[in-house]
Design brief:
Shape: globular
Distance between the termini: 19 Å
Strand order of the largest sheet: 2-8-7-6-5-3-4
Strand content: 15-25%
Bound molecules: pyridoxal-5'-phosphate
Structural class: alpha/beta
Order of helices and strands: EHHEHEHHEHEHEHHEEHHHEEHEEEH
Helix content: 40-55%
Largest sheet: 7 strands, mixed
Radius of gyration: 20 Å
Length: about 350
């Protein structure tokens, strides 16, 4: 029985072309900025986003971490949505390593409004931390892969910038947002001070993320990366698949979105499963399985036994993610298996 792995787009395996690019990559010492393949990837990323510079890092978590370190001093305040990956899943690095204080804004499907942000920003006073940075997440993981439109980002950026705050985007899946809306990522970057995007998720690369911003910001982020041990020497072996990811894997994200919609529609037709269809905007589907009478761990383990792998997502939901390596037939197959499982 073929296993259908819908746990995360981080489980994607590199394409043959990516693997073949590794032994051919021209290499040098990237700490000295002498790796031509890394430099090519970084120039390409900066160009795609219409920004001055970019920096290859080991992971999305490291990209967010060095961005926060570059923007903030210890004791500064950072505004984030309550379910932001940076707050929820990055081991408290924003406090433990950056020394920042999170101020959480409860959003809807991962997004807060400009009015909410405005209301959260306090006038500076001797008693308060210095407000420094606003973070948004696009697409929003815990929101279910939900999209901020460029217009929404512009509105948030106006409030942030009017108050002298910087705006960072955890854009681990920014290309999913851009492809879904058919907009250029430059339309986002115009309003941002920095962004991190991942090569190792929907773009299917084995390793790596990229931080993008102004030259000055990237210089600071480079220092922070070195401080946390992220100076990677002959990192061209990571950058070479990254270049292919950017060239060849962005457009196909559409397929993942179509498969996610098909999956969501199929799941909601299975008795006991409910899906908030409005939240199904990209490649993530959150399925509420309360109506099955099973608890989530039990559902996940039974699904795994029939070869459908998903992640538990809180006390009532399972998360399904579509990605390279999962095709439309896999979706039909997964739905048929789950339907049989729940009908028995
Ligand atoms: C929205 C978001 N940001 C950041 C990350 C962190 O990426 P990494 O696992 O490469 O550290 C993830 C990983 O799933 C993510 O979903």
């Amino acid at each position: 029985m073929r296993r259908i792995d819908l746990r995360s787009d981080t489980f994607t395996l590199p394409t043959k072309e990516m693997l073949e690019s590794i032994p051919q990559a021209e290499l040098g010492d990237d700490v000295e900025k002498e790796d031509p393949t890394v430099n090519q990837l970084q120039d390409m990323a900066a160009d795609m986003f219409g920004a001055e510079a970019a920096l290859l890092v080991a992971s999305g978590t490291m990209g967010n971490l060095v961005s926060l370190m570059a923007h903030c001093q210890r004791g500064d305040e950072i505004f984030l949505e309550s379910d932001a990956h940076i707050y929820y899943y990055e081991l408290g690095g924003l406090s433990a390593l950056v020394g920042a204080v999170p101020r959480l804004i409860p959003g809807e499907r991962g997004k807060f409004t400009p009015e909410q942000l405005e209301a959260s920003i306090r006038n500076q006073d001797l008693h308060y931390p210095i407000s420094r940075l606003v973070c948004i997440e696009n697409t929003h993981n815990r929101g279910g892969g939900t999209i901020w439109t460029p217009r929404e980002v512009e509105e948030i950026s106006k409030v942030a910038h009017d108050h002298g705050l910087k705006l960072h985007c955890d854009g681990a899946r920014i290309f999913n947002a851009a492809v879904a809306l058919d907009v250029d990522v430059k339309e986002y970057m115009r309003h941002l001070d920095s962004i991190t995007f991942c090569l190792s998720k929907g773009l299917s690369c084995p390793v790596g993320s990229v931080v993008v911003g102004s030259s000055e910001f990237i210089e600071e982020a480079t220092r922070a990366r070195k401080m946390v041990g992220g100076g990677m020497r002959q990192a061209g072996i990571i950058a070479a698949p990254g270049i292919i990811g950017l060239q060849k894997m962005v457009g196909r994200l559409k397929e993942d979105h179509q498969n996610a919609r098909k999956l969501a529609e199929g799941l909601s037709s299975i008795p006991g499963i409910e899906v908030d269809m409005e939240a199904v905007q990209t490649n993530i589907v959150l399925a509420d399985i309360t109506g099955t009478g099973w608890d989530v761990d039990y559902f996940v383990s039974r699904a795994c036994k029939i070869g459908v792998q998903v992640f538990e997502f809180g006390s009532t939901k399972a998360r399904f993610v579509t990605h390279y390596g999962i095709d439309s037939e896999d979706i039909d197959d997964a739905l048929a298996r789950l339907r049989r499982l729940l009908e028995h």
